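User: I've been trying to design a sequence by hand for this structure and keep getting stuck. Would you show me what you'd pick, starting by listing the structure so we're on the same page?

Assistant: Good idea, let's start from the same input. This is the structure you sent:
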């Protein structure tokens, strides 16, 4: 089964080719146009996708050493994400499906992240817990079996990656903020200040990052310009410690609550060094097996969409041409 996969949910234009039982190529073009704005501008993202999708798809085909006539099916993200961005990828997939007379399947973006740990290796086997952490999502997902999911914890305000980006902007660091804070925090004292780690009584597995972000803002306001510059690394380290402690603590709590043995993390924040180290140590202490994808498969990519699409195509499932972009698509909803 030779599958062309397309991912255009946000600001990465990505294409990949799956060759029978392995990944043949995985091409990602990150849109640098958003850097000066400190965040993704939806209209600019859509225009960049229109400009980039043809050359990126061709590059993916060339690297996999196949032509468009060799492709037997297509997998494409149709939600959640930015409406205009999703529309570009979905319309391209429909057009190619029609032109080549091959089936296509719409894939849920978050489900792609869940499959990201199974692209290069066999990965976890259900039932397991998946922690999805990115700029737009922070969720704890119980994977009962492939295609059958239960969200057991989610953010009630900011996603973890969004908080990293906003705090990085406060500290006058580069965008995206996650890598910048991770790097600067290595020079700082994580015990400089104890930032809040909020929780909820009605669901201890839910997340909240707006309070932590606000606490950083007020602390910065209490300092002089000289003090802010002097303690920038300490503030980054203290913020990162609080953010990571919440992710680790709730993940372990969920593992224990649902009597699971395997934990898989995915999404852009899964690249964070402190998070990986703390989860490794904590999972070892509790006898849990930890999975995390290589960095190139943490951020948005088409390889994970190819892997998820392969699962559904092998099940005989396809999408029809009435499928439309679903910007707020819930996990487990495919129409």
């Amino acid at each position: 089964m030779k599958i062309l996969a397309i991912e255009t949910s946000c600001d990465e234009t990505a294409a990949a080719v799956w060759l029978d039982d392995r990944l043949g190529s995985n091409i990602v073009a990150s849109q640098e146009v958003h850097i000066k704005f400190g965040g993704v501008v939806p209209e600019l993202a859509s225009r960049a996708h229109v400009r980039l999708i043809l050359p990126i798809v061709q590059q993916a085909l060339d690297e996999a050493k196949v032509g468009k006539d060799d492709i037997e099916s297509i997998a494409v993200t149709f939600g959640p994400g930015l409406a205009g961005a999703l529309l570009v990828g979905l319309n391209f997939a429909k057009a190619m499906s029609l032109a080549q007379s091959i089936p296509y399947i719409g894939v849920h973006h978050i489900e792609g992240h869940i499959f990201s740990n199974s692209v290069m290796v066999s990965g976890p086997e259900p039932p397991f817990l998946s922690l999805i952490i990115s700029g737009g999502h922070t969720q704890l997902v119980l994977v009962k079996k492939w295609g059958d999911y239960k969200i057991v914890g989610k953010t009630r305000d900011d996603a973890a990656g969004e908080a990293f980006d906003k705090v990085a902007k406060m500290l006058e660091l580069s965008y995206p903020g996650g890598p910048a804070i991770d790097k600067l925090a290595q020079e700082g004292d994580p015990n400089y200040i104890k930032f809040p780690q909020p929780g909820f009584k009605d669901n201890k597995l839910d997340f909240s990052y707006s309070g932590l972000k606000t606490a950083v803002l007020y602390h910065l306001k209490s300092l002089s310009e000289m003090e802010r510059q002097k303690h920038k690394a300490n503030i980054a380290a203290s913020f990162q410690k609080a953010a990571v402690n919440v992710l680790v603590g709730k993940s372990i709590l969920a593992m224990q609550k649902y009597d699971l043995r395997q934990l898989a993390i995915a999404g852009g924040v899964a690249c964070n060094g402190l998070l990986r180290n703390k989860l490794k140590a904590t999972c070892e202490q509790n006898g849990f097996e930890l999975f995390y994808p290589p960095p190139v498969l943490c951020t948005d990519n088409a390889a994970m969409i190819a892997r998820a699409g392969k699962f559904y195509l092998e099940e005989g499932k396809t999408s029809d041409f009435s499928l439309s972009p679903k910007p707020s698509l819930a996990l487990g909803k495919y129409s």
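That's my pick for every position. To get oriented when you compare it with your attempt: The chain has two domains: 2-114+297-314, 127-292. The longest strand covers residues 22-30.
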